[in-house]
Amino acid sequence: MLSFLKEVRSELEKVTFPTRKEAMRLTGIVIVISVFVGLFIGFSDLLLTKILEIVIK
Fold it and tell me: 1-57, pLDDT tens digit by residue?
């Protein structure tokens, strides 16, 4: 178990974390893409619902 923890620590020392600026930029990109995908799915759902209402009538 001790060996495992030493290996974990060794691997964590190799990790490079993003800078604050880089993290903020990437977070912004994820939020923008999420909003666009949400809007696309919402409008698609609305459109398909209206089409089905017309077909069912």
Answer: 889 999 999 999 999 999 999 999 999 999 999 999 999 999 999 999 999 999 998
pTM for this one? 0.70
Exposure string for 9-32, b = 16+ CB within 10 A, e = fewer: eeeeeeeeeeeeeeeeeeeeeeee
Find where tokens 């009538």 sit.
Answer: 57
What residue ranges do the domains of the chain occupy?
19-57
Q: Which residues contact 26 (CB under 8 A, 6 or more apart)?
A: 18
Cα four-point dihedral sign 8, 10, 12, 14: negative
